[in-house]
Amino acid sequence: MPEQNDRDSKRIKREASARKRAREAFDRSQIEAVLSAAGIKEAKPEAIDAISALMEERIAQIAARSAEAAEDREERQLSAAAVAVAAQREAESRRAAAEIR
Fold first, then answer.
1. Residue-wise pLDDT tens digits, 49-96
2. If you write DSSP's letter for every residue of 30-60 in order, what string do you get?
3. How many angstroms separate the Cα of 25 from the Cα of each of 52, 60, 90?
4. Which of 58, 59, 67, 55 minimizes the C-alpha distance to 14?
5. What is the Cα Rg of the chain in Å?
6. pTM, rounded to two decimals
7. Which of 18, 23, 85, 94 would give a disulfide with 63, using CB separation of 3.0 to 4.6 Å?
8. What are the domain boundaries of the chain?
9. Straight-line distance from the first to the last Cα atom of the chain, in angstroms, rounded to the nearest whole number
10. Sorting pLDDT into bands at 50, 70 and 90, what band is 39?
């Protein structure tokens, strides 16, 4: 259970950090430019805020999932390395036991 709590805590921190980066990734003028390019010459500030919030959330989710996937890959690599070391030690123990006989 403590491991799950630690993982949840890391995920929450990752998502908060990703949201902060997402907010800094674009500004209102960029959203207005995209809307203008799509033929929407004037948009209500509330609509721009809603689009901004949606973009921030999606970017944050993608970034958090990406970071979590990288963490999972690292954990798998560490687990594989631990298994390899254990197998090597077991083989060395068997060789040593065979030499003693």
1. 999 889 888 888 888 788 788 888 888 888 888 888 888 888 888 888
2. HHHHHHHHTT-----HHHHHHHHHHHHHHHH
3. 10, 11, 51
4. 67
5. 25
6. 0.57
7. 18
8. 2-71
9. 45
10. very high
